[in-house]
Every structure is written in structure tokens, then in C-alpha cells.
Amino acid sequence: MTEHAAPQQDPNPPIIVAVDGSAVSYQAVAWAALDAARHGCRLRIVTSVCAPVGPPPTAVLNAEEIAWLELEGERIVGEATRIASETLTGEGIETSSEVITEPIIAYLIAQSRHARLVVLGSRGMGALRRGLLGSVTSAVTHHAHCPVAVIHSTAAADPVAARQPVLVGVDGTENSLRALELAFEEASLRKTGLTALHAWTDTSGPYMPMSGWETLEEQERATFGEEMAGFAERYPDVPVRRILVKDRPVRSLLDESEHAQLLVVGSHGRGGFTGMLLGSTSNALLHSVDCPIVIVRGR
After folding, report:
1. How confident is the model at residue 191 (pLDDT cuts 50, 70, 90)?
2. Which residue from 38, 47, 265, 266 lies 20 to 30 Å from 197 (Cα-Cα)?
């Protein structure tokens, strides 16, 4: 019996950014280019001439219409490549582009197995103006195998935003640890500080118990400390600000994100973070924050 060797893992996987011709997707390209430069990795730009869902163009369009779509796709990735090149002046980062004829959602999820990061705009015109990029963003953030960055209207290269810290949501779970790892790495590469926020209740009603809060707070403080342990030693160059707050995580993170250049959260967690990116919390964060947000899954 012939034994087949396991596929080699890319020691420095690329960053993949999807573009659709909308302004926010070009912001995503600029942001992804800067992050690729920080990590010294390749940047792959991709657009699809197929609608996010439905049959491929070859099943419903004639040859002339398909040729127009492909030409439009080349125009879009050409503009994206120009933006990346201008953003990366002097950086020497390898950049490639691709126009695909398959649905972008399935493509990105499959490619995320071999990527460092997938980068998307928070909304857009969809696959060549025939859908909403928001639907792509929702599907990919739910199912990707690597972290996913969602870029909003904030300018990627804004010098004011670049002076702000990286914000990370902490809750004691594996996803939270992965978010901390990525957040510390990004803060170090960006030469900025890190704000770690641990919100320990998701109570939204007006009635709260009058006793027992002190014990709960001590437990949460201990959890917070345990999760943060070791990161300061690994990243001595990153100033850390800790926030332990008795509040709903979504509200606390949204408030603090106004003073951050990047928000990093786990895909789901416990307590107040339960269901993050699977329900109301995900919608609030993805659609309400102005700064870029990175969603990190467990190993």
C-alpha cells in the first residue's frame, strides 16, 4: 500500500481579501495590505463574477455577458491591486489577484483553511453589484477556519486611528485565549498598547440581586488574571490596560471600541459572551463598531 505524506503547512500563510468594487471593500484591501506588510506575508486579492448564492454565470448567461463580467472582475482586482501597491510603497510584499467564477462564500471558507486571515468589507455591492457583501460577511465569519477581519468605513491608514490601542474581549474560554494571542501579536507589530476588557455579566433587565456580587467579582477577577498571565512576559513591549466591568459585554466593547484601532473577539464564549457571532451579540458588534473587528475561532 502506498502511503501519502500529509500536506505541508504553509509556515507563513497569506492574507486573503475579497473585493467587489465597493468603497468599503477597497478600504479592506488597504487594511489587509498593511497587515500583510506587518506579518511579512503574501496578499491575495480575489473577486467573484458569480452571485454569492445561485448558479454559476455559465448556467444562465451567454458568452458575451460572461465576457463582460470577467472584464469587470479584472477591472475590480486591478483597482484593488493599485490600492494595495500604493499602500505598500517600498514594502516589497508579494501580491496576487484572481477573478473566480464560483460563489465567493464557499471559496473563501475553503481557502480559509490555508490562510492567516480573511479580510472583508462590512457591506458592499455583492458579487459585481448583484447582492450584498453583508451576506458574505455573515456567512464567512460563521464558518471560516481562520480569523476573519471585517472592515467598516474607518480609513485603514488613518494616522489618528493608528495611535489607538488594540482592544480585546476576554472571558476565560479557549476562543478568548486565541483572541488574546492575536491581539497581543497585532499590538506588538503595530507598536501600540492593548486594552483587555472582561465584562462579567449579561444581565439586561432592571432587577439585579443585591448580594453575592462581591464574590462573583472576585471570581471573575481571578479568571481575568489567570487568562492574562504570561502574555506580559511574552510581549514586554506592549503596554496593557485591564478593564474588569460589571456590564453587558456588547455594550462595554462598543463603548471602548470608540478609542481603539482594532477590536479582537472570540467567535463564541461563556457568560456574557455566549453565542458571540452566532446571535444578537455578533450582530451588535459587526454592525455597530466603527473600527475594524477580527473574529477568532478556537484551534
Report:
1. very high
2. 38
